[in-house]
Every structure is written in C-alpha cells, then in structure tokens.
Amino acid sequence: MKKNKRYSIFSLLRNARNYHENWAEAWRSPEPKPSYDAIIVGGGGHGLATAYYLAKEHGITNVALVEKGPIGLGNTGRNTTVIRSNYLWDESAAIYELSLKLFEGLSQDLNFNVMLSQRGLISIGHNQHDMREIRRRVNAIRLNGIDSEMLSMAELRELVPILNLSPNSRYPVIGGSIQRRGGIARHDAVAWGYARAADDRGVDILQHTEVTGFRIQGGRVEGVETNRGFIAAPKIGVAVAGHSSVLAEKAGFRLPIESHPLQALVSEPLKPIFHTVIMSATVHVYLNQSDRGELVMGAGIDAFNSYAQRGSPMILEDMLAAAVELFPIFSRVKMMRQWGGIVDICPDASPIIGKTPVAGLYFNCGWGTGGFKSIPGSGFVFAHTIAQGEPHEIAAPFALDRFTSGALIDEHGAAGVAH
Ligand SMILES: Cc1cc2nc3c(=O)[nH]c(=O)nc-3n(C[C@H](O)[C@H](O)[C@H](O)COP(=O)(O)OP(=O)(O)OC[C@H]3O[C@@H](n4cnc5c(N)ncnc54)[C@H](O)[C@@H]3O)c2cc1C
Fold first, then answer.
1. Which end of the chain is more exposed for a tag (fewer CB within 10 A), N or C?
2. What is the pLDDT of residues 174-196, one digit of tens each?
C-alpha cells in the first residue's frame, strides 16, 4: 500500500474479496535508467537504509538500488530479529547506539510499523568467569551512557519464571545482565518500510538485477555491469553481506571476510509465555518468542566456509540441547522450520564501512551474525560516507585500512552467541 493513499473500510473489504489483487504496489518496478548519481548494490536492510538516507539526509534522489533477487530475502529476512546496543568498545557502542536510537523512532520516520518490541535482552552467566566478563561489559557499556544492569538471581526469577535456575543443572545459572531497551523488531517490516520510503523519495528499486561486474577506468568506478545491461554512476555503495568477497573480487581487490552459514529455527506457536530475549554464551543458545507465539532460536556459525543457505545438524542438536537445559518446560515443543543465511565475518568480528582501493566504490560488510540491529545506524553513516566522499565520524574507525594499521575493534565476545 502506498503511504499517501487513503483506504476506506470499503476498499479494504473490496480488496479482501478480490484476493488482494488490486492493491497498489508498495514500491515501483521501474526500468533501469542508463545512469544515476549513485547506485547501491544489495537490497537487504543495509542497502535499502543507505538508499533511503541518501535521499532523505543528503537530497541524492537519483539513486538505483540493485538487487539480484527480491528485496529482503537475504540475511535481512533470515535473522532472529534481536536488537541491542550493549557492545564493549567505544566505536561499536557509538554505531549500535545510533542504530538503536533510530530504531526507536523508525516506525514514525518510515510511517510503517516495524513492530519494535523493547522487551529487554538478558545475558546469563554460568560461572565466575562469565560473571566477571558480564560485569566488565556492563561497566564499559554504562561508561558510554548506554543502559545496562546486573541482574541478581531473584531478579532473574522474577523476570523469567520459566528459566531453569536449579543449582543442580549441568551448568547452573548464577546471574546475568539486562539491557532493557534491547529486544526485537520485525525484520521484513524493516526491509519493506525502508523500500517504500526510499521509493517515495525517488529511489529506483531494481529487483532481479544482478551485478556481474564493475566498469573501472584509471582506478575510478564508472558503473556496474548487470544482467539487464550496464548502468553508470560515479558513486557505488555495496552492501551484499555474505557475497561481499565475491563482489570485491570482481572489483579487483580482496576483503578480510569469511563467509559462513548461520542457522536459526522456530517452534510451533505457543501462548505468550516468555517476555524477554535470553542469551547464554556458555551453553550457547539465544531465544525469544515472536509476536506469532513461535520460539525463535539461534546459536553459533558453522565452522566451515560455505555459500549454502542452510546449516549442519550438529549445531541444531547443540542449540536445542542448550534450549531445553535452560527451559525444560519447552522440551516437548515441536520445531517447525529451520533455515540458514550466509554471514560475512571479519577477523575482529566488526564491520567494514567505507572506501575501497577503487575511487568512488564503497563497501559496507562484515556485519556477520549481528547486523540486523545495525541497519538504521549503518545505513545512516554509509549514506553520509557515500554522499560526502569521506567517512562519517562514527564510520571512520571501521575503515578497511584497520587491517593494515592494526587498529582492530575486537568484538568477538559481543558476538559470542550469534545475534
Ligand atoms: C540465522 C541468522 C540469524 C541472525 N540473527 C540476527 C539477530 O538476531 N540480530 C542481528 O542483529 N543480526 C542477526 N543476523 C545477522 C543479520 O541478519 C545480517 O547481518 C544483516 O541482515 C545483513 O544485512 P545486509 O543488508 O547486509 O545483507 P542481506 O540482507 O543478506 O542483503 C544482501 C543482498 O545482496 C544481494 N546480492 C548479493 N549479491 C548480489 C549481486 N551480485 N547483485 C545484486 N544483489 C546482490 C542479496 O540477494 C541480498 O538480498 C542473523 C543472520 C542469520 C543468517
């Protein structure tokens, strides 16, 4: 539905009777123009948000967003929707907190309900080492002005009565922390909301348009080769997650990225029973209950590199064993669906945002297992970087050259459990 169009109850009824055949398209499907002021490659959340902020914040509206399939069916439509900003290092805190703040106003900004639910995100500890690490993180996060609190056993019991707090379990829970502003949002709605709002501002969303190469002259990018022909632009931003190294190779350089499968699964729907998000880095699982009642679960990546959008059974088995250990009440719940995505992981588990060795060509990648939560913030700073030709101050520490300067931002702990 186009946002400016008014729909009466009668038109809603009429459309329902017509099997929704007469709805106006939420975004146009234009033919590609020969050239644009900027091209964004990748119609996941990061690409769509970048296109939207280019138009909204920088007045650059002659933009094509080029996506090889339908939008939002990469990792953006495959993730477990956890959002939070409780990262250890200052650089990460800045970008994830910017993102969370943008999330907090996103439904209003896009005029599209992204179903943000700030139900609190709890990390639990099972031994003294876990608790020391959790406390260190809580302190660091608070020093950056971001909400984070330690939780006693009594508080944990009150917040999650169904959590197994028995001292006799294999790895007993002994405490935890919470970011109360953390939670979940609807992943599809984030993609659709950005797409609709970008289209409204003039961005051409070109679905089923695959970038097969870059035209580069004298070290400067001139456009993209696609299955629908050549499209010219002096500025190109690439946000293709697990396929980043493939596209970098087409542009003649290498990225320090490994692509791994990461899988998730959902259960049959249950009545509301579980009102937060919980993660344990030790028994290795995280869970939340979706608005449809399904338990949504994830854990870690498959250790091997692959472009297959599934995952191996061992990870599933470990994930479910951990889930049942924490929540024996779920032991007879049926699992309904399982899937995987291809995540792009940097050696320091932080993203790459910014310039590449090719002038005019910018990359945004390496979000790995945790880039859903960063979509608004990342799109905001990437759009600035492309528009100005210089990194946004929040994006600057995430430049590609940190792998030669050694200024790494090690967030392995933050992504110890994939989310
Ligand atoms: C199972 C799973 C669970 C996760 N859980 C969470 C979570 O709870 N919280 C969180 O914050 N993050 C989570 N993530 C990570 C998060 O999903 C990703 O970091 C994020 O969605 C990446 O978004 P993106 O826009 O960069 O990539 P994508 O959404 O993958 O979009 C990239 C797009 O590029 C397109 N593309 C690729 N090659 C080309 C080409 N040659 N030409 C044109 N288009 C191309 C693809 O078709 C795709 O649509 C999870 C990931 C997975 C797989």
1. N
2. 999 999 999 999 999 999 999 99
Name 99's Cβ contacts closer than 8 Å, sequence gap at least 6. Answer: 83, 85, 373, 374, 375, 376, 377, 378, 380
Angle at 73 between CA 68 and CA 79, to 5 degrees: 140
Task: For residue range 307-338, list pLDDT tens digits in order.
Answer: 988 888 999 999 999 999 999 999 999 999 99
Tokens describing residue 363:
């990359």
Domain with CATH 3.50.50.60 in the chain: 35-85+87-112+187-256+348-405
More confident residue, 417 or 109: 109
Q: What dihedral do alpha carbons 318, 320, 322, 328 form, nearest 10°? A: -150
CATH number of 35-85+87-112+187-256+348-405: 3.50.50.60
Output the CA angle 301-306-308, nearest 5 degrees.
95
Is-contact 199 134, C-beta < 8 A? Answer: no
Kindly tell me if the per-residue pLDDT of 83 is higher than 50: yes
Q: Which CATH architecture has domain 121-182+258-345?
A: 2-Layer Sandwich (3.30)
Closest CA to 364 of 219, 243, 232: 243
Tell me the two tokens of residue 13: 């009824």
Given a contact cutoff of 8 angstroms between Cβ atoms, the answer to whether 258 and 352 are in contact is: no
CA of 189 to the centre of ligand 1 (A): 14
**Span from the CA of 173 to the centroid of ligand 1 (angstroms):** 33
Ligand 1, residue 341: give the atom nearest the CA: 53
Closest ligand 1 atom to 226 CA: 42
Q: Which tokens hold the place of 164?
A: 């197994």
Give the pTM. Answer: 0.95
280 lines ligand 1 (CB under 6 A): no
Q: Could you tell me if the CB of 214 is within 6 A of ligand 1?
A: no
Element containing residue 151 per DSSP (H, E): strand 149-151
Q: Where in the chain is the domain with CATH 3.30.9.10?
A: 121-182+258-345
Query: Is the CB of 49 within 6 Å of ligand 1?
Result: no
Q: For ligand 1, what atom is nearest to the CA of residue 374?
A: 11
Rounded to an integer, the average pLDDT of 261-268 is: 95
Query: Can you tell me whether residue 131 is helix, strand or coil?
Result: helix
